[in-house]
Every structure is written in C-alpha cells, then in structure tokens.
C-alpha cells in the first residue's frame, strides 16, 4: 500500500526486524542511547512513494546481572583507584575496568557509582594536607617544590581515573548539568581541601612572591616551578584573589622605593634605560609564567611608580642635558616611555616648548652673540627639527609647539633679528661667496625663510634687505641673478606682492638701465668729439631705492663733461624728469703704470678722485686731497686708508701706520707689485654703522607712523563712530608689525589735532570721523 515517509520508528533493543522491501531498500541507521536502546530510523525522500511489504517484530527480555555483581565490580574499581592514588601497579586490565564501568552504567547504577568515586577521591585529597603541616621547618623553596609535586601527582591521577570512568563521565554526568565532571571534581577537591587552607595558601603565595622578588633583584630562579604553581592557582580559579592582588601590592611597594632611590642616585639617561629594562623584564615575566590578565595592571603599576611619579623631576633634571647633547637615542626612549603614561606627552611638550624659548631667547637677547645670531638660529632650528622628526615621531603637537616657541623668543628683541637676518642673506648672496653651490645656497635660503616667518617686524627686514640689495646691484656684487630672483620669489610667496613691489622695481630699473646704456653708446659714437672715458649710468626710480645722503664732490672736467652729455641725451628722450647724481656708490676702472708694468685698478669713485690727483703731482697732504676732491672728512680718511694701508698699497703713507691722521702725506707707490693684472681695491667700510642703522631704523619707524595713520583714518571713515578700545582692537588686526598701545594713542592724538577725527563731547573715549 502507498504511505507517507516514516521517520523515527523506535524499536526495543532485543527486537529483530525483518524487512522485505524488494529492490528499493531504505537506508537503516542503528543509534545507541545511554540505556543501550536501539533506534531504527527510516529515511525516505518526500517526493517518492514506497510500498511496505512485511514488517515483523520479535521482542525478548533483558538478561539479569549476576548476584553481588555491583558490589564486586565496585571493589575492583576502588582497588584500581587506590593503586593509581598510591602510584602502585593496577591488578586489572584497563579495558576490563572500562567495560565494568559501562556495564554498571547500563543497569542504572550511575548515581551510586559517581558518589562512591567522589568519596574515594575526597578521602585521598584530605589525607594529602598532612604533608604540608608535618614539616613547618621547610624553607619556602622546598615547600613550593612539594606543593608542585602534589599538584602534578593529583592532575596525573585524576586523568588516569577519568580514563577508567570515562563512560560514566560521558553519559550520566553529561546528562546532569548540575554535576561537575570528574576532572572538575578533582579540581574542586584540591581547591577545597588543600589550596583553600589559609596556612597552605599563604605559604604558597609567599614563596612565589619571594621567588619573583629574587628574580627582580638579579638572581636566577626556577621559572618552570613558578609557572606550574601559578597555572595551578589559575586552574583552581583562585589566582586573582589569592595571588594577583598581593603581587600588585608588592610590585607597587618595590618600584615606589626603587624610583625614589634611583632618581637621586642616577642621572636621567641612566634612569631611562633602567625603566626600559624593568618594563622589558616585567613583560618577559608575563610571557613566561604570569597570567595574561595581570599584564595591564602590572605594566601600569611599573609605569606609574617609575615614570608617572617622577615626570616633572626627570624633565627638570635631564631634558636640557639630552637636548644640549643631542642624545637622540635617549630622547627616543624618553618619548616612548612618556607616551605610555597618562599626561606624559603633554608634560613633555610643555618642557620642550620652555626649553626652546629659553635656549633661543639666550641666542637672540645676548648682544655679544649678534655676529653669529642667524647661523646659531639656523643650527638650532635644524637640531630641533631633527629631534621632532626622529625622536618625537613627527608628532604634530610637538611641531606646532616648536613653531610657537620660536615665534615667541625671536620677537623678544624687536627689530634686531630682522636686521641681522637681512645682513645674513646679503652675506650669502654677495659675489665672492664660494661657501656653497647653487643647490646648497637654495637650501640655505629656504631655511632662512623659515626663520623669517617667525618675525613680526618684517618691515625692518625689508628696509635692511633693500639697502643691501641696492649695494649688490649697483656695485655688481651680486653672486647670482638667479639666486637673487629666487629669494625675491620666496619673499613674494611669503609676504605678498605689496611687500616685494619696490624690490622688483629695483630689478626693473637695472634692466631698463642696460637698455638705456646701449642707446647711449650709440649716441656717443655719433658725437663729433667722442670721449676716451666709458661711462655707465644706472637710472634709479627714487621711490624704489633706499635714500642716500646727497654728497657733492669735485669731479674732473672730463667726467663733468660726460655727465652733461648723458643728461642731454636722457632728458631729450624723457622730458620733465629730473636727474640727481649720486656719487656714493659709483665705481671705476683705472689704467695705471708702475715699474712692473701696466695694471688695471678697480676702485670706488672716491678712490678714483684721490688717485687721479697723482697725475698732477707727486705728493699731497690729507688737507690738500680734501680740498681738491671735496670728499667728506670721515669718508676721505677711510678712502686713503684703503689705498695706503690695505693689502694693495698703490699709495705710500708718511709716516707709516694703520690709521690716517690729519698730518699724514701721501705719494704714488711706483714700486707697487701684484700678480694679477686687474686689482680690486676694496673700500674700507665702517662697522655698520651706527649712522646707517639709526638711519634705516628711523625710516622704518617713520613708515610705521604713516601706516598707523592710514589705518586709523581708513577704519574711522568706514565706521564713522568708534570707541577707543574697539579702534585699538581693529588696528591690532590690520597692522602687520608689532606696536605698543602708547604709540597708537599718540597717533590718534595727532590725527585729532589735524582734524581727521574728533572726540565725543560727552564720552571722551568715543571718536567721530571728520569728513
């Protein structure tokens, strides 16, 4: 007959089944349960219909156990357990014992068997406690070894007992979730009767702590013993309560005392290496024998006691030593260690910032170091950059703190750093500077720009840079036009087009002057009386160049005539313009005849006027030269000194000496010798120059007054009415140079006096714009 698929048909264990299903035989599975019943499961695909032909069932009774079988079997099993516990040989075959346990379980004896086994094991464990009480004189290490041996024996015995009673463990115990397994029972008994004993537990933990302390003090200990005992505590689930709490307390006490002592005895580099070594040792202990759960509190404890409690003292005592000595290895270690401690990096950052301010402030604010200030600043910046990158992992906070510190200390001394940076750039861009290749010079300029960014008074830099640039361009002392334009491009990128407009105008004037001189040479060639003097003139726009004090000198008639020719030529092309001759920066090349032969002498215009006098006479006094040339006294003495007292002495001074006095007389040195054909005689410059410095600084100050006035008028014109405090606040936002409140107040008063603005009659702190 047709039927639906059958599933889960359960038959009695003694039934016999006869199935005749023709050629379509189903799959048959015999499954054994705990009571040795058999289940016959028929599996059918749901999409097929089967015909069942015959099913026969034959049921027989279960055989009965022999009399006293249960008692005899238990005695046999108890003897085997005792042999295992006493480490003697077992009389019976293990397979026979296993089968005996299976038979007992099959006949519902499992609960009794489990209780009997537990009682035997408990009696044995209770007896073990005596070995730890009988020998109180044992030293700690011997006690630990005995405890470890007892634990290892117990684990080995429990494993063997479980292998015999495995059927019980996998059937009865597994089906009763409230019952612990045989292995867990063994752990529970050992914990309850041995480890939980207060005296035994204290002695065990004391011994382990003693071994760890010995190891911390440099002695060799049995790590496998410690690992085994701590594993025991962990397996018994008493590790945290019995050991870890005491271990951390002892660790805290040890490192607190050690930190206090070593901070007094050792310098910071040694102390840092010691802390790193201690942390490495503790991590090694965790890997070797401590539980992984101990890692975080243990390392935190060491870091707190050796680092956290001494951060400020360490940095006060040793940071400057590490930075001064450029001890990069220790600085890397310092950063790594402080990054592990709460608040470590912020504290380190603050001390780093303070160090930079202090060290840099000493460079800037010590007048005796002015000569090397800029180079010292560049070296210091390179050094701090290297520390930030290689030691502080380019941490953005440290880089920003360094920038803030540089900006703070470099502006402690107004104007001077800006002036010296401009002069440093001049020394690098001046002709004859062979210290660096073009690539190196470009790198130096980039570094200078980094320092330049920190300066507030950039107008001071501009004034001195412009003055030096003018000399380089007019006297032909510039090392490289490309380098000059590169520097100009950097300044323009940094400060904007307005900052460099006048400097760019200087370069344009020089280029236009070249074109004008080409035209002038053609003009001269067409003259009926060509001159034997070759004249080069630079036409400068007055607003672009530094202002020079006009100086009238007595030029030879040939030069005066040539000047007039150029004046006619230039004004003929550019009517309405006015030419003002400036001899201060003029220079010339003279042909001279000595006994050795002809030479060319490259000299300044003042030197030229002095030397040309010796075409008319043999010897002259200082007064005679002054009268003939019209050169100012101080400038004349420096000129004569350069011609008669320098390396190339084309004049003889009588009497001899390094300085020029009023009574000295000079004559032409016909015996002059030099290996070169063209000789450049440098003009002796005064140390710059109290006059030049004051003049340049005064010009900057005056420009600032104009800028303040313009800003005040601009703000008031837009706002119409404004309080004093708001006006000052607006001015601080707009002005690009540092200014004091008193200076602003003076300019406001000046504008009120000049009727650009007025005070409110009722509120004196209120201003009104006057249209």
Automatic annotation (TrEMBL):
Cullin family profile domain ranges (all copies): 416-644
GO molecular function, one term: ubiquitin protein ligase binding
Pathway connected to this protein: Protein modification; protein ubiquitination
Keywords: Biological rhythms, DNA damage, DNA repair, Host-virus interaction, Isopeptide bond, Membrane, Phosphoprotein, Transmembrane, Transmembrane helix, Ubl conjugation, Ubl conjugation pathway
GO cellular component labels: Cul4A-RING E3 ubiquitin ligase complex
Gene3D superfamilies in the record: Cullin Repeats, Cullin, Chain C, Domain 2, Winged helix-like DNA-binding domain superfamily/Winged helix DNA-binding domain
Classification via SMART domains: CULLIN, Cullin_Nedd8
Any Pfam family hit: Cullin_Nedd8
Segments passing through the bilayer: 40-59
Listed GO biological process terms: cellular response to UV; DNA repair; embryonic pectoral fin morphogenesis; heart development; otic vesicle morphogenesis; proteasome-mediated ubiquitin-dependent protein catabolic process; protein ubiquitination; regulation of protein metabolic process
PANTHER family: CULLIN
Family note: Belongs to the cullin family.
The protein's name in its UniProt record: Cullin-4A
Organism: Sander lucioperca (Pike-perch)
